[in-house]
## 1
Amino acid sequence: MSDHISVNLIPAYKPLICRTRPTTRTVQVWTEEASSALQDCFECTDWEVFKEGTDLDGYTSSVLSYLKFCTDAVLPTKTIKVFPNQKPWLDSTVKPLLKACDTAYRSGDKLAYSIARKRTEKRH
């Protein structure tokens, strides 16, 4: 009974976050304890064993596979969820800095905003 015509429009474009599902990745976490344990592992290694082969390719592949074995054995792993619109440089150290910048900007305090921006720029 209205004099207006209702039209339902469906957009042709779907945002990337709606088109693809988040993926899970397993990453290795570098901690101080893991770094010291890895250094201990390399200090007690007899590196002369790898020199037995005269082939340079065989030597490099054996050393690299030993390094991978040591890092896989020592470093703890963590499973994370990665969203399709997530930038790779936004990690757990950058997010609080950006949040502090946003909070300072919204509060209207120019000095706090300037300090927060400088801290964020130092990170990059």
Note: Residues 11-84 form one domain.
## 2
Amino acid sequence: MSETALLVIDVQNVYALPESPLCVPKFEESLGRINKLIEACAAKGKPVIYVRHAHRADGRDAGRMFDFAGTAEPVSFVEGSFAAEYVPGLKILPDGLHMVKRRYSCFEGTELEAILRSLGVNRVAICGYMTNFCCETTARVAHDKDYFVDFIADATGTPDLGPELTQEKIIEVTSATLNSGFTKVFSTFLWVSELC
């Protein structure tokens, strides 16, 4: 049986604030599913790793994050800001592991792989925000590093990108792509049922 770790990615206030341009529709619903995954892992003694995205206010550590097209944008996810903190409703386990990333992938420039190896993990389960950025990028990188990857689609979320590209459509398309060669895609209910 494989050892699985749950990656709880970027469950931060910036995605829950109604005034935020990154506000995720039905945020409380996806957060509830994320908490169910955390509780299931806690009950089975599976490691839970919480990851937050954060940058220095001056953007020295941001690289191309905020000028990917060549035009600089304001730095967001600023360290110490309310927007970059965990949402108050997130279940934090006393023995959960915590790390900060500065890129979309949870592996880039972090100690994640060393932690996973030290725990004997060969499968990661992914939940959090945003479906098509940090969650998808981490899933693809994990696959390339030869981990098995479970993508818990309904425990991810992302802002709508317009009337045609709603959160539901983005999750559907991202899941279909990942399921065709990178990950196994699950609902929260199915993943918890299989885990337990």
Note: The mean pLDDT is 95.
## 3
Amino acid sequence: MTKTYGYYRVSTADQNPELQINALKDAGCCEILGDIGFSGAKTSRPAFDEIMNKIGEGDKLVVWRLDRMGRSLRHLVEVNETLAERGAQFESLTEKLDTSTPMGEFVFHILAAVAQLERQIIRERTLAGLAVAATKGRFPGRPRKDERWRMAA
């Protein structure tokens, strides 16, 4: 019996996954699992791993958006190859992407590359912002150990 698995992910506990869950329900997913507080950059996530262990011949993995499944091109391609080896399909609702067709497979690879590019650009901006803050003597995040000792004295 074939199944349609829905997967949702939010990066922080204060984000609300309801939009994703509702879209997956509307898409007819019979089982919906999700990870809360996990980055898409992590390849191993409890609910995602559970779905990947269950999915088989004729099944389909559905996500709200491609970046919910993963952010690196390598990981997205690996997941897609694993699904194909098992005879399973992949669908992304927002991008209207379905890998059961040659064109869908082609578009998948293009969008996966764009998702990775977006992640790299965000990383570059973050590092640039941290560098500017450091030149002004500000270091975001938890105070360094030596600073805490000086403040306590």
Note: The first strand starts at residue 4 and ends at 10.
## 4
Amino acid sequence: MIDTTTTSRSPTARLPRRLSAENRREQIMQAAARLFTERGFEGVSMADLSSHLQTSRATIYTYFPSTEAILDALFQERLCALQAQLSPHVRGGQPAYREIMALMQSEQDTVRLLNSGGGPQFCEQRQRFVNVIRSWLLAEAPAPLPEREWLLDLVIQFLLTAANQQVTGPAQPTQWLVLEQFIDGGIEAVRKSAP
């Protein structure tokens, strides 16, 4: 006798409701981000993504022509969010270094995504992301050159290495104090060495 309980639907089982185009696109992007960070960008195909989402490849291709296009959309989304979050900390008077570093630390999903691939296409897209952030911070941060560029490089390096160091949880206040003193000492050294 064949067991039909595993092959037929129970009368109370619900079919997944239809998602709007915007929600489906977001669902694809979030699933891709999760797979990229778990397996590495180069280790994820459109077939993997369709299997993970339990949908057809055709559905995914309706929204994105390739995994590279999904990555580009993810970077664009994260870039806009990061700029919005950083903006209050870099405009006006002295940049709030502690808040900037805390924000970078809280952006674990973004830093993991930035460190999830090593192939040429991935590296090119990551470099574009970093260049946009750097250019934007240069335009927004009020500190004069050359210390502004030095600080930006520090912030960007923190962003790119935090995921590799598996930074988890908020830093202790004494850690931020040490980091702030290090930054202040670096600024003073740059000012003294400038002609």
Note: The chain has one domain: 21-193.
